[in-house]
Each structure stands twice: as C-alpha cells, then as structure tokens.
Design a protein that fits this description.
This protein has 463 residues and is an alpha/beta fold. It contains 16 helices and 14 strands. Helix 4 packs across helix 7, helix 12 packs antiparallel against helix 13 and helix 15 packs antiparallel against helix 16. It starts with a strand and ends with a strand. Bound molecules: adenosine monophosphate and zinc ion. Zinc ion binds next to loops.
Length: 463
C-alpha cells in the first residue's frame, strides 16, 4: 500500500517513491537549532517526521530509507547564547544537542541515519557558494558577505507562491523577517549565503575566498543534503514556518548550483499552539518535555497527544489533552496485555491484517486522527483473533512504547488539597473573588489548579 503525502510544491497528494535505481528513499528533515531545549512545538514536527520515517521503513524496508536530519549549530541565536553565557559556541551547542537527543529518545523517535552539523560542513557550503558566484547567481558586498541574487533565478517563489512583484515590494519579507539570521542586503529579497565577520560574532568565523566569516542559514541544508543524499532527494520536510523563506531559498540555491531538481516532494506539518496561542516565553505557555515531566506526565503521553491531531492542521495543546492521552495509553496497555494472554505469540502470516484500516489512514496523508479512530474501534471490539505481532506492528508504526513506566503520581500535601477543595467550592458557588484569592494562595505555595468542566487537577506550578 503506497504512502500518499501532501506535496507543498504541487499542492497535490502524491505517492512517495524512491527515484534512484538503488531503491533507497532519500529523506531530509530540517533539524533543530541547538541553543536551548526544544519545545513541544518543535517536537510535534519531529514526532510527525518520525512517524513518516517509520512508515517509510515499513513500506520500503529498513535498509532502503536514508533519513538525514541536520543540526543548526551556528546562526544568530546560537552565537548570541554563547556570548551571553561566555562559553565557546561548540560547548553550548553540544549541551543542547545532547539534551535534544535525550528528549528524542524519551519520545521514542528513531535517530536519523546521518545527523550532520553545519559547522562540520563549512567546505561544502563554501563550494556551493563559489559555484553560485561563478554562475552569476551571487554577488559580494563590501563587508565580505555574499548574497544570492533572487532576480537571477526565474523560478524563484514556486513553493511559497511569492510573486516577484511582492518580493520587489518586500512586503512578504517585511511581514515575515528572516528569523534565524538578520541580513543586510541590496535587494530586499536577496539573502545571505556567506556573512562577513562582524564584531558580534566574536571568535566564530572561518576563512573563505571572501575573507573570514560564517555561512548563512539556508545554505547549510542545501550543502548537507547534497553531501549526504545527492543532488536530488525524494522528500524534504519541516514545520510550516520553514516553507518561506528557508525552503524557497534552499530550492533556489540548490537548483542554480546543481542544475537539477532539488527535492521531488515537499512536506510541511502545521504548528502546535498552546492554549490557543502561539507559544512564547513571555506568555508563559512555552513547554519543554521537562516542564511536562515535572507535572507528572510521561513522554509517551506527549507523543500520543502530538500525534492525535492531523499533522496538516494546527493542533491546540492543553494539559487536558495529555490527560486524555494518558487514558488512551492505559487502554492500549490493557489491550496489549489481553492480546498477549490470548495470542500464542503471533504467527499470523497469511491472514489479513486486522489493523489494515489503521495503516490505510496513516498512508492517506498521515491521517492520524482517523488512524487512532480505527485503532480504538478494533481495541473496543476486544482481543479475540488479534495477535501480538499484528498489534506490535501498529505500535511500531505509531512509535508508541507501552512499556514506558507509568508516570509517578504526584503527592499532593493535605493542606494544598484542602485549599483546592475550598477554591473549587467557591467557584461552584460563583464566589469568584474568593476563588481568585484562593488560586493566588495556591500559586504562592507553588501549585496551579487546572479547571475542567467536571472537576480540576492540581499540578506543581511552572517555574
Ligand atoms: P528550529 O529549532 O527553530 O529550527 O525549529 C525546529 C523545527 O520545529 C522546525 O521544523 C520548525 O518548523 C518546527 N517548529 C517551530 N515551532 C513550532 C511549533 N510551534 N509547532 C510545530 N513545529 C514547530
Ligand atoms: Zn533546513
């Protein structure tokens, strides 16, 4: 059963197929910027890509998928962090790379086959920039930078449908500044391939034909993708915010440099919102995996909650959705136990896969809500005629590890429980002033109360 996936370039849902005669499916997923702990929005994107990786392995074979996910370990943010902390860039990025790996493992994401770091691919990036310069697609500026000349590439803007007119007016750029690297450029739409050294960069620079400097953000993915997967890849993915300008610029650089199609298929998953809003530190709604662990939730509950919404729709995360995920996992664990009690082990070869509807939904543009719906229809029918091996194949595809220890329940001190009861009673009695005052007392004691329609839960307050 072929995997069909929405293609952001053609806006069609198309079958995934490897192009090369070796049958290896070449898959590049833009990776994290390693300057802080990744937040749960980042992990929505990485978990969705992990689901894709697993389906590709099932479809084409474990050794027929090459998955590359880079580390952005040099850019404005990483450099700023290293300066603020008076620590070498490599030390800062190593710390956050390790944290990222630990969180990915906890979320049961398979490691990519290659995880190239931008700083380890400076010569490859310089090579590409030199070719672009020779071909007339790039120009130098006085400060030792090199820019890509967008007007030199007639096909610019196909992915994001940014019209040249709009580019000229720079309105698109004004509305969406380049978040990773702020550029100074002649034409509003041109972007930096190489950035001449500035005092703020401290000791972060490499020699190049244009003097000391560092690569721009976009060129790193073009260069690492070419090095590890070749000039044409089968699939390139990332969160929807990367579509423009990052991926548009990658296409321009790669196609002008290599003279051939860069990626045959583009996939962008949508963002995670928290409590209906974009996550931000200032709103206090930015969660990391550790924040959720501190509230007593296990990583598998987060994985489940992140997969529960359709990947191409925005997903609103709430702590309630984690409670729901925990209860779904509890059902799946009970079902797994019932299946293994009945099943002799599971030589079910030849018989029809009872979970075929789950796979059909996943293969249909990663329709995870339909897949979970189909899964629970089967689970609710009971364990008869289900083999452990068939169920384990579904669990593998979804990446759900049911052996993860159930998160320890948080001990709530009696006085806190009493305060919470009092507050709930006040709220039910519509005495909102008293309820607010009690909420403040709870907060002062380090607890936050999460109200639901039918009750509440108590959690240690976020720091
Ligand atoms: P970054 O570390 O900023 O380079 O982002 C890593 C990945 O996370 C990229 O694919 C982004 O598109 C994605 N991303 C960033 N914010 C969110 C969000 N709120 N929801 C889902 N994905 C996100
Ligand atoms: Zn990228």
């Amino acid at each position: 059963m072929a995997i069909k996936l929405h293609d952001s370039l053609t806006r069609e849902t198309r079958e995934l197929q490897p192009a090369q005669p070796d049958g290896i499916f070449r898959f590049y997923n833009c990776g994290p910027t390693v300057y802080a702990a990744a937040h749960i929005g980042n992990f929505r994107t990485f978990v969705v890509n992990d689901l894709l990786r697993r389906l590709l392995e099932i479809e084409f074979g474990k050794d027929k998928v090459k998955h590359v996910r880079n580390l952005t370990d040099v850019d404005d943010k990483t450099i700023r962090r290293s300066r603020e902390e008076h620590r070498p860039l490599a030390e800062v990025t190593r710390q956050w790379t390790e944290k990222f790996h630990a969180d990915c493992a906890a979320l049961n994401c398979l490691p990519p086959h290659v995880e190239p770091a931008a700083t380890m691919h400076i010569p490859e990036q310089i090579d590409m920039i030199s070719i672009l310069e020779k071909k007339g697609h790039a120009y130098r500026t006085e400060d030792g930078s090199v820019y890509f000349k967008v007007s030199s590439y007639g096909d610019y803007g196909h992915l994001s449908r940014v019209k040249e007119r709009e580019l000229k007016q720079s309105s698109a750029f004004a509305a969406k500044p380049q978040t990773h690297d702020a550029d100074e450029k002649e034409d509003g739409s041109d972007f930096a391939l190489w950035k001449g050294h500035k005092p703020e960069d401290g000791d972060v620079s490499w020699p190049s034909p244009w003097g000391q400097g560092r690569p721009g953000w976009h060129i790193e993915c073009s260069a690492m993708s070419k090095k590890h997967l070749g000039e044409t890849i089968d699939l390139h993915t990332g969160g929807v915010d990367l579509l423009f300008p990052h991926h548009e610029n990658e296409i321009a650089q790669s196609q002008c440099c290599n003279g051939t199609t860069f990626a045959r298929h583009w996939y962008h998953s949508e963002h995670l919102l928290v409590d209906g809003k974009k996550m931000s530190k200032s709103l206090g709604n930015l969660y990391t995996l550790d924040d959720l662990k501190a509230k007593g939730f296990g990583p598998m509950a987060l994985r489940y909650a992140l997969l529960a919404g359709h990947p191409r729709k925005q997903l609103n995360f709430t702590l309630d959705s984690l409670h729901a995920a925990e209860s779904a996992l509890k059902h799946l664990r009970a079902f797994r136990a019932a299946v293994s009690e009945r099943s002799s082990g599971g030589n079910d070869a030849g018989s029809e896969d009872p979970f075929a509807p789950v796979f059909a939904a996943l293969h249909d543009d990663l329709n995870t809500p339909a897949a979970f719906g189909a899964l629970f229809t089967i689970v609710n029918r009971g364990a008869a005629n289900i083999s452990t091996s068939a169920f384990d194949r579904v669990l593998f595809a979804l990446g759900l590890d049911l052996t993860e220890p159930v998160a320890p329940k948080i001990e709530i001190p009696a006085d806190i429980a009493a305060l919470a009861e009092k507050r709930w009673a006040a709220k039910q009695a519509k005495d909102f002033a008293a309820a607010d005052a009690l909420r403040k007392d709870l907060a002062a004691a380090g607890w936050s109360m999460l109200d639901r329609k039918d009750g509440y839960s108590l959690e240690p307050a976020k720091k």
